[in-house]
Amino acid sequence: MQKVLGDFIHALRQAGLPISSSETLDALNAAQLVGIDNAPLLKQSLGMTLTKCLEHRLIFDQIFDRYFNHSFNRDDQLKDDNRASSADSVANYKSDNEAIEPVSELVNQLESPLAQQLMSNDPSAMQVMMTSAAAAAGAQDVTFMTQVPMVTYRVMQALGDGELQQELAEMADSDENCAEVQLLRQRRTRLQQQVRDYVEQQYLLFNQNEPHKRRESNIQKISLTSIDQRNYKLMGELVRKAAKRLASMHSRRRRITKRGLLDVRRTIAANAAYDGFLFHTKWKSTRVERPKVMVICDVSGSVSKVARFLLLFLYSLQDVLPNVRSFVFSSDMAEVTQLFEQQDMDQALAEVIHHWGNKSTNYGKSLADFEQIGLGDIDNRTTVIMLGDARNNNEDGNVSVWEELYRRSQRVLWLNPEGQVSWDSGDSIMSQYAPYCSHVETCNSLRDLNRILGSVLKHEA
Amino acid sequence: MIIRNQDKINSPDTIKQQFEALGYICSDAIATSVYLACHLQKPILVEGPPGVGKTELAKKTADLLSAPLIRMQCYEGLDEAKALYEWKYGKQLLYTQLLKDQLGDVMRGAKGLDESVSRLHQFGDIFYSDEFLEPRPLLEALRSEDGAILLIDEIDKADQEFEAFLLELLSDYQISIPELGTVKAKSKPLVFLTSNNTRELSDALKRRCLHLYIPFPSKAIEQKIITAQVPELNDKLKQQLVEFIGELRDMSLKKVPAVSETIDWARALLLLNVDNLDHEWVKTTLNLLLKFQDDIEAVEPEIHNLLKVATKQR
Fold it and tell me: Which SUPFAM superfamilies match (chain A) (predicted)?
């Protein structure tokens, strides 16, 4: 049972459920307690011990059905075999059973072990042989659907298919035992089908998610500017996942200050040792930190792609960053906070890019606009995040506004999608702005985003 | 507690029947979870929409095992002094004042500070002993001689620090008090934690618990619940009522009616002598089911359609 459950848990982990070893032990204990005869009860018990949220429970249910139904069905089939009563298999087995009688004495004449096995018509022994051969051939490690035929072939070879084929060929030449050859061929085909089904099922159980996972981890590293349209959806999911993780890490962080109400109980407790004289006062005042964040995004050309994910990320952080104000610009700047609040993310992004995107960039003009619409609201608890490549088409950079912004705010982050080598090359004026930033970082992958925003939150707390 | 009640909890089915006898109609999943929790001695984390009987489950389990129910309501700012133990400071102060003379006697004749201090030490930590300890729910549950049901209600409302503090209790049924040392459970309590999912609980906590999600009950079970709670209601009305509520739950409302609201409604209809659900009655009693004016306004124009569905499927 341990083996079966171990494999099952392995399959669950492959599907992305986080199952710890202590939970595995619990599951084993539970299974021992309830027994394995009652499938629904077992399913509930394992579900309770192994999955801890509804979402995981649904995945669990699916995999449980797939994994155990196979074994249950197999058991049923075995029983049916013995009784030869199942409606489906009657026709099949009847013909076999009739055929068996005349050839049974020939079984002894067969030389290859697989042929003997096939003729002896013992499905459970066959099943055991197949399972162990499949394990040896690495059926659990099939990572792509296309590998299935190859592994099937390997399993067949391990079962002794080579010898069987040879013997079949010899027997066919002598054409004495025509009926027997026919039957043997038929059974071999059936076995092959079984092996194939088994390998396929192993693939579905254990590794179906493997390519998906690999793609996810690749896409984390890939440059945001080169992500193509078809990966947007996956990327969006990943962004939301990462944002959720950050949010839960940083939600509800509190700070005890030396202000507020006198905490009488704790004060007396702390001063009991001094005969009740209140030497040390204790205060209770808790404040939930709500960082204010302003994002300014360049939405021209290649930067707009990164902006898309930065904005998506920030808005997925709503729980911990409820006060995000966002501005976009290429030549003119505008506030788009409302737009994002009212509309679905994808639509809003499309509209932003349509309205403001893809024009020639002018940082000077945009910063002048910002002076009008946003600068006044920046106080010393505001973090400003700028996303842009500082490519200004050789115009005046209006650095004084940026300097003022830096002076007023708590922190200024400049995220540049270009690598450090290309800063200041061509029309980039990064070095003019850089002195007035707390941090200047290259930001070009989901990983960068995750790291940088994580540090924003940590800094605030 | 577990051993004493062995016959009541020897299989999930028995538990289910016992619960039914107590008027708590439950699904197989709930019975299984209680069965596992009793036998594996693990806490149960109960989640689900408000009003599906999460707290009630702990109460009925206490009834079933005839054990005391110790309830701790969680809230923001709950700390160990309110959850675990507190020293009786007033008593400590009073005693030091009263014993001043006694102390003088004890100390009389001692030469030098060293000797005085060593004499004092002979008396041990009187002021930090059981006498001065005020047990709070968690400690009470651990000290209970014959096991207890500990209900930690709405754990998601407590702070993350408190959640971390619970971990020792949940995995080892023990708690460390600096002045006294480790307190081990005399008899392991059965712990229920409930959560309304206002925030994500930590993995460490989840790992230590069995997880039980109680969804809204199926129509059949809900009918049984009403039968158990409001036995006087006639079958036809009961069926209409459950269908109607089922339809309401499919609508997108701010707060969908829970089981407790169904029961309230059933009681109200009984009181009003209604024997057939019609438009007028539904409209006048809708405020029992829906707790937001927005919801009521959204549902009112739909009542006709909902009723058609509810009364048709008989």
Answer: vWA-like (SSF53300)
The alpha carbon dihedral of A80, A81, A86, A88 has a sign of positive
Q: Is A276 in Cβ contact with B87 (below 8 Å)? A: no
The DSSP H or E segment spanning B72 is: strand B69-73
Looking at A264, A288, A312, the residue that finishes a domain is A288
A315: in domain: yes
**Nearest partner of A26 among B272, B207, B270, B139, judged by Cα:** B207
All residues at 6 or more sequence positions from A415 whose CB lies less than 8 Å from its CB, including other chains: A306, A310, A385, A386, A387, A388, A441, A442, A443, A448, A452
- Under DSSP, the state recorded for A398 is -
How many angstroms away from the CA of A448 is the closest CA of chain B?
25
Please give the residue range of the domain that contains residue A281: 254-288
Nearest to A40 among B28, B92, B200 (CB): B28
Judge whether A357 and A325 are in contact, CB under 8 Å.
no
Identify whether residues A279 and A356 lie together within a single domain: no
Instruction: Report residues of chain A scoring pLDDT below 50.
Output: 74-103, 254-256, 461
Q: Which of residues 285-324 of A touch B (CB under 8 A)?
A: 286
Domain termination site, one of A268, A288, A308? A288
| In a domain? residue A58 | no
ipTM: 0.81
Would you put residue B86 in left (φ > 0), alpha (ψ -120 to 50) or beta? Answer: beta
Residue A263 in domain: yes
Residue A327 domain-assigned (yes or no): yes
Closest Cα to residue B25, out of B51, B57, B49? B57
Note whether A276 contacts B: Cβ–Cβ < 8 A. yes
Q: Which residues, 6 or more positions from A248, have their beta carbon under 8 angstroms from its beta carbon?
A: B199, B200
B47 and A54 within 8 Å at the Cβ level: the answer is yes
Same domain, A406 and A283: no
Summarize pLDDT for B264-306 with one digit per residue, the tens. 999 998 898 888 888 888 888 888 888 888 888 888 888 888 8
Structure letter (DSSP) for residue B50: T
CA A322/CA A308 separation, integer angstroms: 19
**pTM surpassing 0.90?**
no
Three-state DSSP class for residue A228:
coil
Beta-carbon separation of B207 and A57 below 8 A:
no
**In angstroms, rounded to a whole number, what is the distance separating the alpha carbons of residues A300 and A333?**
12
Per residue in B231-248, pLDDT (tens digit) is 888 888 888 888 888 888
A261 CB within 8 Å of a chain B CB: no
Cα–Cα distance measured from residue B188 to residue B148, given in angstroms and rounded to the nearest whole number? 8
- Among B15, B36, B79, B82, the strongest candidate for a mutation testing the A interface, having the largest count of A CBs within 10 A, is B36
